[in-house]
Design a protein that fits this description.
Elements: H1 2-7, H2 11-22, E1 26-27, H3 29-35, H4 41-53, E2 57-69, H5 73-77, H6 80-90, E3 94-96, H7 97-103, H8 108-118, E4 122-127, E5 130-135, H9 137-141, H10 148-158, E6 161-162, H11 168-175, E7 181-193, H12 195-201, H13 216-221, H14 248-262, E8 266-267, E9 273-275, H15 276-281, H16 311-323, H17 338-341, E10 344-346, H18 351-360, E11 366-375, E12 387-396, H19 402-415, E13 421-428, E14 431-441, E15 444-454, H20 456-459, E16 468-474, H21 475-483, H22 496-501
Parallel strand pairs: 8-11
Antiparallel strand pairs: 1-7, 2-6, 2-7, 3-5, 4-5, 9-10, 11-12, 12-16, 13-14, 14-15, 15-16
Helix pairs in contact: 2-4, 2-12, 6-8
Length: 505
């Protein structure tokens, strides 16, 4: 068996075995470099790792924290409290706060006073309406005697100091002084021969240069003839190699985006922060609608308000809410509040992107989509998140109708790989008729979004003359369907194993 193992050793593995044997069975990477013809540590450790997988060597590691000088200026000129003690002593044992500030400019006096009080080196007393620093007995005795922090800094000026040789309290004090010292772990390693490794090392193995790769130079020179070739053991363990992979969420987003682009859509966008006017009021959502409650919507304190400057548009929207304007609608009645419409919120749906795009592009034909992050005060559970993504879209066309909308929805989900869907009537303040879409998943129907045709009250302010089809689909729930995920939170877990095992499409 020893012979078989020896035959499978590489040049560096053989060299390391022989070096460890010569070193008495153990050595550090530094010793291997200085005494045994290893050029760099990674060369020795690479060979050691392979010997360890074969049971011929063992690697031990020990991490030790070391401290070193950060900003050495304090150690050179002295700690602020030391210089303050000397200044006060030179003034007869007491000094006014203003005098210390002159003696220690740049704000150092404040730092010094803090440490004087903390270490009991001086007291602050009031004399004649002003504050005076008076040295304590401890402060007087500290003259000519180094403080523990000063002694430690002098040690660090000579070189790094191990944690075991350091006073914990002193270290904590200096760490709290803003970069005065640095800390860094130093890992020491030793490589040991196992009993099996010792047997192989004395079995008569010979160190020979091997040919590991057939190169152009090797062939042209003729050196390949009569050379010793590296033997490979197909049974040897090799670590798994994973190709670079984008997040499944990113891949799905790109797939959805490309599908809409292929269908002739353009991509639209809007800001996360929106005034209620565009997020709610322009979409004909009444100001007493439950969706506007604090328990459902994230309202912002800063900015305190966002004012729409188009006075004509604001007046038109007010009339639509109060009496329906010139659309033939009765509106919602009551008094519409402009102040409430200026409330800043995190957008609660990506339909705000649609209506802003519609305001800028009111003419048919028009097809636009977005894949946008939205925010709602949802309790986090297996199917809900307070921050999630919506697939939004609109189509303006003189021949568009409800059948067209259903066809678009069915085509979208068919391209996503889902044929078993159902559509049922629904209600939304800004569409009529309206529908909700459900897909059959894990033995039950899952709601994936809503759609409809924008009401006249929504499109009238922008002079839109043709039907506007609109929809909003749940992106995360679509991802759950594609990958058979039962908990929506798994989509955003930073787990490398999950990413590596995810399939591409």
């Amino acid at each position: 068996m020893d012979h078989d193992v020896a035959e499978g050793l590489s040049y560096n593995e053989t060299k390391l075995l022989l070096a460890l044997q010569a070193a008495g069975g153990k050595a550090s990477p530094g010793e291997l470099i200085s005494k045994y013809d290893f050029s760099i540590e990674v060369e020795a450790m690479g060979a050691a790792s392979w010997l360890e997988t074969k049971g011929l060597a063992r690697i031990t590691e020990e991490s030790t924290m070391f401290y070193s000088i950060g900003d050495g200026s304090e150690a050179v000129k002295g700690l602020p409290e030391r210089r303050a003690v000397e200044a006060i002593a030179a003034a007869g044992g007491k000094m006014g706060m203003s005098e210390l500030a002159e003696a220690m400019p740049g704000g150092e006096d404040k730092i010094a006073v803090g440490w004087l009080k903390r270490k009991g080196l001086a007291d602050i007393v009031k004399e004649g309406g002003s504050k005076t620093l008076v040295l304590t007995d401890k402060g007087k005795k500290s003259r000519g005697k180094k403080l523990p922090a000063e002694e430690f800094l002098e040690m660090l000026l000579k070189g790094p100091v191990a944690e075991k040789d350091s006073d914990k309290d002193v270290v904590n004090e200096l760490k709290g002084r803003g970069g005065m010292i640095r800390e860094a772990p130093v890992v020491s390693r030793e490589i040991f021969l196992t009993d099996e490794g010792k047997k192989v090392a004395v079995s008569g193995i010979v160190l020979k240069r091997e040919i590991t790769d057939i190169t152009d130079r090797l062939i042209q020179s003729g050196d390949w003839q009569g050379g010793e070739y590296r033997k490979y053991d197909v049974r040897t363990f090799a670590p798994a190699v994973y190709p670079a992979k984008r997040s499944p969420i990113t891949r799905l987003s790109d797939q959805v985006r490309q599908m809409f682009l292929d269908m002739g859509f353009v991509e639209m966008s809007s800001d996360y922060v929106q005034p209620s006017f565009w997020n709610m009021d322009v979409l004909f959502t009444p100001q007493d609608h439950p969706a506007r409650d604090l328990q459902d919507t994230f309202y912002l304190d800063n900015p305190s308000s966002i004012r729409e400057e188009d006075q004509e548009l604001v007046g038109y929207v007010r009339e639509l809410h109060e009496n329906g304007g010139d659309t033939g609608s009765t509106g919602w009645g009551g008094k519409w509040s402009r102040e409430f419409s200026e409330s800043p919120i995190l957008r609660t749906h990506s339909t705000v992107s649609s209506i802003r795009y519609l305001a800028a592009h009111p003419d048919a034909p028009c097809k636009a989509f977005s894949i946008s992050r939205i925010f709602r005060k949802e309790s986090i559970d297996s199917t809900h998140l307070p921050e999630f993504t919506q697939i939004e879209g609109i189509v303006i066309d003189e021949n568009a109708n409800f059948d067209t909308l259903i066809s678009i929805i069915r085509e979208f989900y068919a391209r996503m790989g889902f044929d078993k869907i159902r559509i049922r009537p629904a209600y939304f303040p800004y569409t009529e008729p309206s529908l909700e879409l459900e897909v059959f998943f894990n033995g039950k129907w899952m709601e994936l979004g809503g759609a409809g045709i924008f009401r006249p009250e929504v499109v009238a302010p922008f002079g839109v003359k043709h039907p506007v089809l609109a929809w909003g689909f749940g992106f995360e729930r679509l991802a759950m369907l594609k990958w058979n995920i039962k908990d929506i939170r798994e989509l955003y877990i930073s787990d490398l194993d999950t990413l590596r095992s995810s399939r591409t499409f």
